[in-house]
Amino acid sequence: MNRTGSLTIPRDTYPPPAPGIPLSQHIYAHVRALIVTGNIAPSEALHEPTIAERFGVSRTPVREALLRLRDDGLVVIKKQAGTSVAPIDAGRVEEGILVREALEPRVAELAAATISDRDLAALASETDLMADAVRSGDGRTFIEADDRFHRILVNAGGFQQISDIIGRVNAQLDRVRYLSTAQPVRSRIAVREHHALIKSLRDRDGAGVADLLRHHLQGSWVIIRAILAEQA
């Protein structure tokens, strides 16, 4: 693991922002990913001038990105001590669990009525990637594909603000998941559950999708809470 995080990554390793994407959003997304995956460790300092130099930008978009990360609970900004990566907060993790379990099944239930063939194909593709990752023991690829699966499903409901809320709280959950590779038994079960979800979506069975997703999420919480307990 790279314990000095983004501060040692050469500037030219960062792709330029996509057209129309604000610089602050571009920086936010990259630094957020480094924190969530554990490439920048909890309590590690984040220096605005250094990050600005790596991205080749002024300090203004860096400051805006760090403020967003603070609002997500991923960094701590103190006037005298500066900015650092926030420790993993068990309370925030539990809040994330509550938010996802309350919102995702309902959104997925509504999405079942209108989900497109394109989204169904994308869900199947991500599930195939998860299955491949289980076979190869690639926990990181498994988590990334699993996150994309859930993001596609939530976005299919058309509720952008709910999608944004879930995306923010999911950062806290993924910080815990990346502390350990995905557990093989649970990973294989998750793949089967994803296949069942896709079938219910194809059948336009909204109530069935909600029940399956609620059960699926609860299985994930068992793993997350176990990892948290190990860390404690």
User: Which stretches are poorly predicted, pLDDT < 50 over at least 5 residues?
Assistant: 1-6
- The total count of strands amounts to 3
Number of helices: 9
Please state the oligomeric state of the protein chains shown: single chain
What proportion of the residues form beta strands (DSSP E)?
A: under 5%
What's the alpha carbon Rg, rounded to whole Å?
A: 18 Å
The structural class is mainly alpha
Measured as a percent range, the helix fraction is: 55-70%
Mean pLDDT across all residues, rounded?
90
H/E series, N to C? Answer: HEHHEEHHHHHH
Amino-to-carboxy terminus distance: 20 Å
Largest sheet: 3 strands, antiparallel
Please list the strands of the largest sheet in the order they lie side by side: 1-3-2
Q: Could you say which overall geometry the principal axes of the C-alpha atoms support? A: globular
Write the layout of secondary structure elements.
Blueprint: H1 23-36, E1 45-46, H2 48-55, H3 59-71, E2 75-78, E3 82-85, H4 90-111, H5 117-136, H6 139-156, H7 160-177, H8 184-202, H9 206-231
Helix pairs in contact: 1-3, 2-3, 4-6, 4-7, 4-9, 5-6, 5-8, 6-7, 8-9
